Amino acid sequence: MDNLITVEHLRKSYGNKVVLDDISFNAQRGQIIGLLGPNGCGKTTLIKSLTGLIKDYTGTIHIDNEEPGAYTKSLVAYLPEKSYLPDWMRPIDAISYFADFYKDFDKEKAYDMTTRFGLDMKQRVKTMSKGQQEKLRLLLVLCRNAQLYILDEPLGGVDPAARAKILDLIMENHAENSTVLISTHLISDVEYIFDRVLMISDGHLIVNAHVDEIRAKGKTVENVFKEVFSYAW
């Protein structure tokens, strides 16, 4: 498999505060990658750099051999942690909007997933629960035929009973041979879908490993996380 993402010596500061310090890694096509670390470690800054929302960094980022810009944005389906849908919008409106905005959006698939998630097509966002809003935002992302899906805390507001179903839908519905990068705190719920994990501490990449390598040592991803970040527990 060839690399979809290549990051080399990435460094980002806010004033005197170094948020990312000499981050380097590759991500292959077809992998599901966990991006893990405690709050404030630099995960969201890395995600925003990959998506082109942050540009004033040093080092290099390439997605499909191109620096973040108009071309790479056409390849990336991004689910931010915070909601961006206006209160007046309904699922039927959001689907229509995404279908008009993204050439790779599958409208019929979106209708099907709305039914599978049990969402009312005409219910306004402002009257939805947090879990319902997250399901809507997630299906809008998964219904793009993207090369890279970046999901920032996609299960944060979803009840435990629904998490396994949603993870199965993520695995079933992302485009073939695409890469999925998931930032999450719910490691025990999610780690079974990971091929690889990246762990960041205070802006440094301290773990970059295949999950099979971790399991071969008789450990789980959560075991390693707790060992590495014992200070945060």
Architecture overview:
The chain is an alpha/beta fold and 233 residues long. The chain has one domain: Rossmann fold (3-Layer(aba) Sandwich), CATH 3.40.50. Helices cover 33% and strands 27% of the residues. It contains 9 helices and 9 strands. It has helices at residues 43-50, 70-73, 91-101, 107-116, 130-142, 160-173, 187-190, 211-216, 221-228; strands at residues 3-14, 17-28, 32-36, 58-63, 76-79, 148-152, 179-183, 196-201, 204-210. The protein has a 6-stranded mixed sheet, with helices on both faces. The radius of gyration is 18 Å and the shape is globular. The termini are far apart.
Short description:
By secondary structure, the protein is an alpha/beta fold. It is built from nine helices and nine strands.
- The CATH topology comes to Rossmann fold
Q: Would you identify the CATH architecture?
A: 3-Layer(aba) Sandwich
Q: What is the number of strand segments?
A: 9
Order of helices and strands: EEEHEHEHHHEHEHEEHH
Please give the order of strands in the largest beta sheet: 5-6-7-3-8-9
Q: How much helix is in the residues?
A: 25-40%
**Main sheet summary:** 6 strands, mixed
Distance between the termini: 37 Å
Instruction: Please state the overall shape, judged from the principal axes of the Cα atoms.
Output: globular
Measured by DSSP, the beta-strand proportion falls in 25-35%
Mean pLDDT over the residues: 91
